[in-house]
Every structure is written in structure tokens, then in C-alpha cells.
Amino acid sequence: MNNPILVQLNNTLSAEFLLLLSDYVTIGIGLVIAYIAYQGYSRNDSRPMLYIAAGFVLTFGGPGLIFLVSLVVPIPTLVVGSATQFVEILGMGTILYGFIAPAWV
Q1: DSSP string covering 22-35, please?
Q2: Residues in Cβ contact with 102 at an 8 Å cutoff, skipping those fewer than 6 apart
Q3: What is the pLDDT of residue 14?
Q4: Is the CB of residue 64 less than 8 Å from the CB of residue 27?
Q5: Are 86 and 66 in contact, with CB atoms under 8 Å apart?
Q6: CB 3.0-4.6 Å disulfide test: which of 13, 16, 41, 80 passes with 49?
Q7: Ramachandran bin of 46, using left for φ above 0, alpha for ψ from -120 to 50, beta for the remaining angles
Q8: 56-76 residue pLDDT tens
Q9: Which residue ranges does UniProt annotate as crossing the membrane (predicted)?
Q10: How far is Cα 69 from Cα 47, in angstroms, rounded to an integer?
Q11: pLDDT confidence of residue 71
Q12: Which residues lie closer than 8 Å to 35 by C-beta, 6 or more apart?
């Protein structure tokens, strides 16, 4: 007979695993976009594309790196969350600057 507590525990672990996996798929796609933007910078010598590429690295790669460091080093959850938010905001600001900067020149 199936124990309902074990079934619920297995479902929770599966859901958490799927969420973690989807986070890393998102990080991977973001880093691929950053690479394509960097290629655009290299090909066209377009400084705004460099800002967009750096912004994508910060926005998507930064939180993943912070999470991996938090697995190795005991960092309080509040510090991890704050650092993640800061890096994401910095990355989005860098992307925004890459879009707006050409209009200022």
C-alpha cells in the first residue's frame, strides 16, 4: 500500500528538481543570447551590443554563479537573495543602457 506521506514527499522532490532544472535551462538560454550579442559586437564593432551581452551575462549567469557559491560556502539566505537581486538589477540596467546609449550619441 502506498504511504500518502511518501507519495507527497516524492512529488515535492520531483517538483523542486523540475524547478531547479528549469532555472538552469533559463540560465543556459540567457548565456546563449549573451554569446550571440557578443558576436554582434565583434562583427560590427558595436559598443551597445557589448553592453547588451554583458547585461545578459549578469542577469542570467550571475544568479546561477551566486547559487553555486552558496552551495559551497555557507552564506545566509538573505545575503544570497540580496546579491542575486543586485546582480539582476545591474544586468538589466546594463541591457537598458545598451539600448538607450545609441540615442544619446
Answers
A1: HHHHHHHHHHHHHH
A2: 48
A3: 77
A4: yes
A5: no
A6: 41
A7: beta
A8: 999 999 998 998 888 888 899
A9: 17-38, 50-73, 85-104
A10: 31
A11: 84
A12: 53
Whole-prediction pTM: 0.78
Query: In which residue are the cell numbers 543556459 written?
Result: 28
Cell numbers of 44, please? 560590427
What span, in angstroms and rounded, lies between the C-alpha atoms of 88 and 59?
4
Residues 26, 31: Cα–Cα separation, whole Å: 9
Which cell goes with 92? 538589466
CA distance 51 to 49: 5
Residues (pLDDT < 70) of the chain are 1-13, 103-105
